[in-house]
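Async update (no meeting this week)

Hi team, since we skipped the sync, here's where things stand on the single-chain job. The sequence we agreed to prioritize is pasted below, unchanged from the tracker. I ran it this morning and attached the output directly underneath so nobody has to dig for it. Comments welcome in thread, and please keep replies under the output.
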Amino acid sequence: MRNKIAFSDHVEQMKWEDFHFDIMTVNTLPQIEDPEDIDNSFTFCDALLDAFKVATNKEVIKLLFISPVDIYNSKFYGIAYLESKEVFTAEIESTPLFKEWFTIIDERTRKKETNAAKVYFFGANSFSSQPISNFKDNQVFEKSGLFISDHIPNAFIAEKLAKEKADFIAPYIQLEAKSNFQKVVQLFVQLVHAKGLVIIPPKNNDAIYEEFEDEAGYPFPNIIKEFLTLHNGVQNSAIMGAEKILQEWKDWYRIYNDWTQEELLDTYSTNEGKTLLMYTTPYWIPFFDLQNGNFLAFDFAPDTKGSAGQIIRFGADQEIGYIQADRLDLFLESLMDVDGDIQDYEWFSSE
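Output:
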């Protein structure tokens, strides 16, 4: 198949005429039922992804769809990034149904813009566009190989990106955390009685710890194991049991794996210098659910002013992590303080 090439550094040097754009018919578009349907954009996106999957017999990680200024006299193009780390290029046949669909999508994305050629970026659950004029030096058509290389999905360079993240975080990893477990027990018992909490009885979590170690590549930390000998979560509260801890950690680990080090690191934000300026790391283990994707976590990769096992706040509403307490016992103590950072209504219900 001449319009499918293996991605390599050589692609960056290629020009538009070096790629082959054989005509491809999109047979995956349904008839339009409601031009005003808010889901039309994603229906169009999914149909194109499916069409390129059928044409290549490969999963499509990402698709660049290039539209012309005049849909009646110019051509549509697609550049697909395949699971096999290949790039597939094609001209899309401008059938009446295809033009009808595109007219709807173009009107919705244009807003107040005048007619303009655009590049659409399609992926699983993602849809965006921008005018071709946003790319300097007519990059799309004059420096096509560079344009294609600049927009490769992370999966194409997964090994390189993983190494960048591993190299960055390695100097900060501290798995051995100091803990006064006697003090933790004392404060936890006081907290349970003071707030009228109902403990879910602790259980054997060896299988969970083993699963964590297999995925994380490091042992489940002892200070959390100790804490989980006191409970397996607390009813109607933010305090999580072992299963929930593992699940939430895995969810955040997926985000960490999907993002690049550049995307994870926020050099524009500041904190106290105790936590890394990161959105998430595999060494933050959530144990306290503040809802809406926000958590408190044990931190085993603290910044230079921090300490292993410190309690940090991170999540969907924050660009970086922030220190909550230097130790677990201090955090438990703060939950009993009426003037503490976290109010009762934020973490438990007495109903």
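Quick observations from my side:
The chain has two domains: 4-152, 161-347.
The chain has twelve helices and eleven strands.
Reply here if anything looks off.
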